[in-house]
Every structure is written in C-alpha cells, then in structure tokens.
Amino acid sequence: xxxxxxxxxxxxxxxxxxxxxxxxxxxxxxxxxxxxxxxxxxxxxxxxxxxxxxxxxxxxxxxxxxxxxxxxxxxxxxxxxxxxxxxxxxxxxxxxxxxxxxxxxxxxxxxxxxxxxxxxxxxxxxxxxxxxxxxxxxxxxxxxxxxxxxxxxxxxxxxxxxxxxxxxxxxxxxxxxxxxxxxxxxxxxxxxxxxxxxxxxxxxxxxxxxxxxxxxxxxxxxxxxxxxxxxxxxxxxxxxxxxxxxxxxxxxxxxxxxxxxxxxxxxxxxxxxxxxxxxxxxxxxxxxxxxxxxxxxxxxxxxxxxxxxxxxxxxxxxxxxxxxxxxxxxxxxxxxxxxxxxxxxxxxxxxxxxxxxxxxxxxxxxxxxxxxxxxxxxxxxxxxxxxxxxxxxxxxxxxxxxxxxxxxxxxxxxxxxxxx
Length: 420
Ligand SMILES: CC(=O)N[C@H]1[C@@H](OP(=O)(O)OP(=O)(O)OC[C@H]2O[C@@H](n3ccc(=O)[nH]c3=O)[C@H](O)[C@@H]2O)O[C@H](CO)[C@@H](O)[C@@H]1O
Ligand SMILES: C=C(OP(=O)(O)O)C(=O)O
Description:
Largest sheet: 4 strands, mixed
CATH superfamily of the largest domain: Enolpyruvate transferase domain
Helix content: 25-40%
CATH architecture of the largest domain: Alpha-beta prism
Bound molecules: uridine-diphosphate-N-acetylglucosamine, phosphoenolpyruvate
C-alpha cells in the first residue's frame, strides 16, 4: 500500500502546470461512444479514473490509444452494452456511458452504482430523464437494464428536480442522437458541461445553452470524428492555490481559466490571500494572517463541494472561527476526524462544521477516506509540525495527476513510499 510522507514547513514557490479536468475528461470519453469514428482528445490527465474509463471503453469494444497526453478512441467497432459491477464500484462516473449506449445501441445494462464514501449518490434523476425519452427501465438484482422502447430515443422536455451534473451530462449525450428536440431545464451549469457541449458540437451535435440552466439539444442522425482539448482542472487549481496560501508561498498556476473558479478566488481573497492575474495563469501569494470565513457548498457557480475539505485545512489555522455547511453530499466530513488527529479544533453539527482556528497543526498518521479528503490531509501536512503520513492514497490518485511530483517541484517535502 502506498503512502505519502510529508514534512511540513516549506513555503511553496515556483510554477505548476494544471492538468486537464477529471470531471470534463470522464464524460467526454463516454461521449466518444456516440461516434462511429475516431475521437482525438488532448490534454488528458494520467489519473486512476481515466485508466478505469479506458478499461471500460475497451471492454465495450473501443480501440483506445494513449500517447503522452493525447487519447485516441476508435468506437467504430463497438459491440457491447454491459458495464460490470467491478467497474462501477471503482468509479461512479462509469454510469455516464449509459446515455451514449442508449443513443447508439438502444440498450444498456449497468450495475447499480450504490452509495460511496461521501453519500448515497443515487441515479434516479438520470433514469427519470431516460424514461421521458422513451426508455424502459428495469431495476433488479443490483442492475439497471435499460431499453429504448420504440426503437429510437425521443426528444423531450426534462426538468431536473436538482441540477445534477451527471444527470445533465448523461441526458445531453443521449439527446444528441434522439429524434426531435430535448430541453433540459434546471440543468447543472458547471464548466465541464460547457466542455462536453463543445466536444459534442464539434462532433456534429446541435446543442446550445450549456453553462445556463436551460440546455436545448436538437437530435442528429449521426456524429463524426472530432479533435478536442480538455479544459484545465479547476479543483486541482484550487487545491494548489490552497497549498500556496497555507505555506505562505508564492506560486504561479499555469494553463488555467480563472473565470471558472470565481467562487474559490472570492473566498481566498476574503481569507486574505493575494491572487493576481498573469499571462496564461494566476499567481497566488499566501498571507501571515488567515482570516476566518463561512462557506456553503452549492451547485456551480456557487462554492464547489469538491473544494470543501481543502478549505477546511486552511481554515483550521485561521485567526478565528469559521463555519462550513455542506449541502451537496450528506457524508462529506470524513476528513474532520483526521484533521482533529492533527490538532485541528472542529465540531460537526448536522451538515455544518464549526472550525476554531488553532496556532498550528501537528503531523500525525492519517487516512485518505476519499479523494478530496485525501487532498485536504496532504495540504494540512504541508504546514504541520513534524511528519505526517497519509495512507490510502489510491483515492488521491483518482483525481490528481502526479500531485507529489508537482508539490516537490514547488519545494514541498513529500515522498511517496510503499510500506505496510
Ligand atoms: C465525475 C464528476 O463530474 N463528478 C462530480 C459530479 O458528481 P455527480 O455527477 O455524481 O454529482 P451530482 O451533481 O449528480 O450530485 C449532486 C447531488 O445530487 C444527488 N443526486 C444526483 C443524481 C441523481 O440522480 N439523484 C440524486 O439524488 C447526489 O446524491 C448528490 O447529493 O458533480 C459533483 C457535484 O458537483 C462533484 O462533487 C463530482 O466531483
Ligand atoms: C466526488 C468527486 O468525484 P466523483 O464524482 O468522480 O466521485 C470529486 O471529484 O471530488
């Protein structure tokens, strides 16, 4: 089992290249199924989740080549429509192949993605939308079997009960090859959905409105080859911003579109961090006085749940009390007991965490219970006194490309070791 050993105290400086976004590349790789041709996808990060998606596409019959950061997906000879339990358990985003499979083959069978560490995460909104498009759904023995009723998906008006990112993406992909117009209202507005729209439109789809809460899709009969570059990962960027802030460092993030993380920037500025726009990137300069702030996670453009644990590490050493309310996932405070082991003063009351800033954190043995919880512990380790050992780091590798190498290049003392 691999672990990270971190010795805190080094201020970070230099520049870091931000990778392609996990949450953009996963739906876009699924969308490659819609074409009967070759999709060339650039700026693909080497993440565990991307390896899982590659394995899944190959299992469905796609030919996938991965050279450097470019992935070529040839879906012309695809022939399989079932996603086994193992792949769904390793990565929830595997369920994003459902829309493309229904659109192209009229059938899909996936193992039901049960709950995961951060919450229940049902897919009822995806299924409700598919039903409106004429899909018959059978849920039995832990599987969802879906079949297009009358031979083709029909465009429909779908109003989501909640702006679910995955449901918006799955339905957009299905609707691209449906007959007629689909209107998704109360759609999620994340930048990764705009990237998916751009990818699909470059393949010949007719979609407009991504980035707003109404997305209109006019179905087309086929989609062709495409070349597309994945947008930068705003959550990876935010994580490095906090690394700079926590260590009172001075770090330039390269290859980022800062308009995508206004909510993160705004909170960091409230905390006292200096953020400067520079050529093709932004510079982050830490502060001696981390001011407390209150945060509530909400759908984009609000404050992202995927940054909540990392902000909690920063607020643990603020000069006062902060409150973080988590409204997206019901169980996303698993980093709290681990931060407490490191000397943080945090109490959880329902969906809120009350964080009383302490003077300093202490190194400890802690466990990454999920992806962002793991990132938060690395961040805490960067400023803690003495040594922090983070285990279960396979969670972190799901969504951060070479986080240890990138941090080391900025001056952090972090090492990946294999040890029991
Ligand atoms: C691969 C990817 O892009 N993952 C992101 C995506 O996950 P994901 O697409 O799973 O997130 P959703 O927006 O769908 O989920 C948000 C909330 O809605 C609930 N829900 C969702 C669908 C559904 O059918 N029924 C239902 O009740 C979920 O349980 C959760 O409480 O958006 C989340 C919210 O920004 C991020 O944290 C994830 O990093
Ligand atoms: C929750 C996350 O991802 P996923 O939806 O892939 O589990 C995340 O990126 O923080």
